[in-house]
Amino acid sequence: xxxxxxxxxxxxxxxxxxxDTDQIIPARFLTTTxxxxxxxxxxxxxxxxxxxKPNPQFPLNDPASEGCAVLVGGxxxxxxxxxxxxxxxxxxxxxxxxxxxEIADIFRNNSLKNGLVPVVVDASTHDFLLANPAIEVDIxxxxxxxxxxxxKSVKFPIDGFARYCLVEGIDQLGYLQQxxxxxxxxxxxxxxxx
Amino acid sequence: MGTPKTLFEKVWDQHIVAKETADTPxxxxxxxxxxxxxxxxxxxxxxxxxxxxxxxxxxxxxxxDHSTPTTPVSNFKDLLxxxxxxxxxxxxxxxxxNDFGIELHGFDSPRRGIVHVIGPExxxxxxxxxxxxxxxxxxxxxxxxxxxxxxxxxxxxxxxATQCLLQRKPKTLAVEVAGRLGNGVGAKDLIxxxxxxxxxxxxxxxxxxxxxxxxxxxxxxxxxxxxxMSIEAGARAGMIAPDDTTFDYLQGRPYAPSGSDWDAxxxxxxxxxxxxxxxxxxxxxxxxxxxxPMVTFGTNPGMVxxxxxxxxxxxxxxxxxxxxxxxRVPTGKPLTGTGVDVVFVGSCTxxxxxxxxxxxxVLRGNxxxxxxxxxxxxxxxxxxxxxxxxxxxxxxxxxxxEWRESGCSMCIGMNGDTVGKGQLSVSTxxxxxxxxxxxxxxxxxxxxxxxxxxxxxxxxxxxRPYLDRS
Lengths: 194, 470
What we know:
The complex is a heterodimer of chains A (194) and B (470).
Chain A: E1 6-14, H1 21-24, H2 44-47, E2 70-73, H3 85-93, E3 97-100, H4 105-114, E4 117-120, H5 123-131, E5 136-140, E6 145-147, E7 153-155, H6 160-168, H7 172-177, H8 180-189
Parallel strand pairs in A: 1-2, 2-3, 3-4
Antiparallel strand pairs in A: 1-5, 5-6, 6-7
Helix pairs in contact in A: 3-4
Chain B: H1 7-13, E1 16-18, E2 26-29, E3 32-35, H2 41-50, E4 60-63, H3 84-100, E5 103-105, H4 115-121, E6 130-133, E7 147-150, H5 153-162, E8 164-167, E9 171-178, H6 187-198, E10 206-211, H7 213-216, H8 220-228, E11 237-239, H9 244-250, H10 259-269, E12 282-287, E13 294-296, E14 304-306, H11 318-327, E15 342-345, H12 353-363, E16 373-376, H13 381-389, H14 392-399, E17 402-403, E18 424-427, E19 442-445, H15 448-457, H16 464-467
Parallel strand pairs in B: 3-4, 3-6, 4-5, 6-7, 9-10, 9-12, 10-11, 15-16, 15-18, 16-17, 18-19
Antiparallel strand pairs in B: 1-2, 2-8, 13-14
């Protein structure tokens, strides 16, 4: 995995609450055996009309969203299905961080494994971001800070291990493989076997 | 006796390979890894690229359910799967299981079915196990007192390669349900009421334990319905303490222990329930006796009301308003009487034999209303067979419903079973998200009884009058 240390970008705002992974990538696009190229299906049924033309009302189609790498969602972003295709699609489209007041557990785990940064902020910071689309923000992963225009900076919670893996570009499987002796010992010593 | 522990804490502690620290998450051992065709191809690619074997194929169990057809088996040759992508997934699953030595309950297996139906049915799901699957409804298996949760494809790769996961310990939430469910009110209504009460993010970061007299009196099928939808409240997992109902269900199943192993397992399982003095991080309570049949009116499972209750006002919440606009339902009135196009009985939430029996009880001697399409999809081939042995297939067919092969089907609409644009579906599945059952589909989640009553009425209907006949 490539290290992810700092993301400086304008924001694109999807103010709806409870944006689920079915909205992020509808299930009919999951009949793939690859993780590549899913960006073209990102928010497919919201971003595109029935003929595949961009829906001008959808924020990602606003010319001001061009090149934005930070998505601000409503409360409880990423709920629903465990499909990792959701972070894959966001990353492939060019989104590198998602900001909300709350990010669903499985989506957050999947995002961190792929270098998509989940940023949870307090309600007032969130309200400010929702009300001011397309502002430039600076996300510093090693310091766990989100800095707004004008220099106001807020801390966001991120598990220390996940942050270390992001910043150093470490694949968590490698860490687990290093535990193999302990895994073997656990299997040998447990009082019952599944 | 040490410190009093909850059911979750006991199972968690028994699977710690390495304790969590401030800097590192816990290494958690996985006893059963369930896999299906949609969320695994990229994980097997990872193993191939790194030249890794599956560490414990003996603890890995595979089936195909999401993109498989449910059309009657005689038609399979014409319509193997809906589209090339699905066909490739199915072929790759067969290849992957073959290459890595994993037992697959594939197309020809009489044990094929929805992954969360066959795990318990085979007796592979057992109290005290840790169970994971690349599917959020893995929470279903918590009904047996297992710690079971959904993971993403990268984590599927981790488990295939190491049989372990890196996890931070979740918090605990007790959902205390007193009283007893009334006639015509089922486990689906109970869990929809819980989600309505705590919200679709009410369980985020928590493992739920469902407790209380109402839970203890539920059958295993009903407990699975409850735990299945834990994820719809955002919870990491849902669990129910194992008891004699659990043990009676498991005894004699093909993957359950037998002989002296059974006795040893039973002794271990009886120690799992939460200790009396153990504390939960949070507790919420409700009474089952007060519940009515529940129906969702919006685009997430927390937007739910009693079947005779009016849809609440949006209180100026734009997300709420947007959901009602999508659903095209007015506020201030109950959903009863709203016209129905499609009725779906199935999914890992409500496709077990007792679910089918409840739907059949409402349908018996009745007809599906003209213009309504009703699809009944058993959760597994074994359930299909059991249902046919007691004549349920005939009840459904005579009423005018379609009786299908097993699979996820119209819950997720990946296999060609979809709801048309703008159509209203009363569905026993778990998600009423926008477009979940098909582009533009409008989904009302309900119990099998309410779904069947709505099929007969041709509009959303309270099932209780249909059950009070005779």
